[in-house]
Amino acid sequence: MRVFTVLRIAKLKTWGAVAATDKHNARERETPNADEERSVENQILMGSVDSSVHDAIKEALVGQRIRKNAVLGVEMLISASPEYFRPGHPDKAGHYEPDRLEAWTTATTQWLQERYGDRIKRATLHLDEVTPHIHVVMVPLDDRGKLNCRALFGGSRQTLSELQTDYAQAVSHLGIQRGIANSCATHQKVSQYYTLTQADGQELPLPQTYSSPEMLSKVTRMSDERLAQYASQAATNGARAQRELVEPVVAAAKNEAALLKRENLNLKIANSRLSAEASTMKKQLEGLRGLDLDLVLRTLFKAKGPFAEKRSIESRYILSDRQEVFVSDSRWKIPEKKRGKGAIDLVMALRGYDQNDMPKAVGELISAFGTDRVTGEVAATAIEKANRLVRAATEKFSLKQAPQGQRHAR
Fold it and tell me: Which of 132, 71, 138 is nearest to 106 (CA)?
């Protein structure tokens, strides 16, 4: 059975992309495709373990003028068909033969070192996914040490095809061969190649060549029986060649189906957790809502109302001492006296309490409505005061920092 090389590249054009790739490869972020219990088996093959790839690339580019659309890093994913790592058991996801893995890792690392040298800032062997593979992150420097991705990887399909061929030659002694040259497969979408065995959406490949049976001689050519034998043998050889080329793709489809099933289960679990968290958060937010001023006025002050005011969004309440209070949502107003927001300040205003008497107002509310509901009111009041302080401080800071000629432009 034939086994093929796998090599994909992706350009990293932002520092965020570099950092995200580094975290993924170091398993510092959730990776649905990986088995957490086996992540400890992953190995750093090249690059420093004391600093991040993000920092290593930044250090390599110190003093360089970086264009806005420059490629800061290149990620390369390298692997082989599952049949190489577990011959006879391509569907046994996550398993590999140690001696085959070691031989492939040694050959690949040697090829990377000879071709890219210290441009490579991190090469990580992942053994916690379906098939062993290596993630390489490098800084694309040309021979002058300048940031120049085109110099290393070009801008044409031919350059990437030559890269595929060069790597295949480096591992050919292991029985791993290059895929069909000039096929419709893409070579840049590392993010779409988690199973390392999927076919990137391409159709089942057609056989390149097959062993044709020897053509009949002139003497025997007239025999219908011999002609039938020739046709049968030609069909058999062609079918065999097609089957050998298609079998890896069929195995890849099986592995991908198993992975999708697992990811679907993980998504269901995650959705269930998010639903539970959302329900808890909703209850907590409900607890932070302030007390209804209508309820406070009618319960503590025996107020009558609300009476709708013409051409106003406010509602009017009349207290037992004929005092009037106008309410709009959580805001209130006592004509010619005071206005404010929230139940605590309303109680303090109507009782004539000062700031030192706030506990008395809170105590009255607790006695009438219970601790839980008043806790929400206190929290809402605290948040509102904090917001006012922040707005005031922000405005003061903005005025202070504004240039002298611009302070009065507002």
Answer: 132
**Consecutive H or E run containing 315:** strand 315-318
91-100, 148-157, 215-224, 333-342 — which is least confidently predicted? 215-224
Contact call for residues 248 and 197 (beta carbons, < 8 A):
yes
Amino acid at 185: A
When the candidates are 2.20.130.10, 3.30.930.30, 3.40.50.1100, 3.40.50.300, the CATH number that belongs to 3-201 is 3.30.930.30
C-alpha dist (Å) from residue 149 to 74, 82, 139, 331:
8, 31, 8, 61
Q: How far is CA 254 from the centre of its chain?
A: 25
Taking the C-alpha atoms of residue 166 and residue 171, their distance in angstroms, rounded to an integer, is 9
Residue 410 has pLDDT above 50, yes or no: no
Q: Which helix (H) or strand (E) covers residue 326, if one does? A: strand 324-328
Are the beta carbons of 313 and 328 closer than 8 angstroms?
A: yes
Model pLDDT for residues 388-409, shown as the tens digit of each residue: 777 777 776 655 554 554 444 4
- What letter does residue 313 receive in the DSSP assignment? S
Q: What is the mean pLDDT of residues 258-276?
A: 74
Residue 240 dihedral angles phi and psi, to the nearest 5°? -65, -45
Domain ranges of the chain: 3-201, 293-406
**Token pair for residue 265?**
């289960």
